[in-house]
């Protein structure tokens, strides 16, 4: 049985001087995405304890189409435009899910 889920890890480096502003945009975007988009199954953001400007986001979407719809939403566009000068590096890594479990 094929699984249509799209899983990605976003590896983001943020200008340390703008980290608080970046986190405000990120928090707003994730909350809106999970609340308003049924195709957004999971967005988990974490920071490296030793380098808090190194952010990783585990993204799980119901399908590629759900992801494509997500990046066209007003809240995602606000995040991308608002943080464009804050992000110093971005790497998007598509993943094959092995097991996704949560309580």
UniProtKB/TrEMBL annotation:
ABM domain location, by residue?
Answer: 6-99
Q: What keywords does the record list, in alphabetical order?
A: Monooxygenase, Oxidoreductase
Reading the lineage from the top rank, the first entry is Bacteria
Q: Provide any one GO MF term from the record.
A: monooxygenase activity
Question: Pfam families, alphabetically?
Answer: ABM
What name does UniProt use for this protein?
A: Antibiotic biosynthesis monooxygenase
Which organism is this protein's natural source? Devosia soli
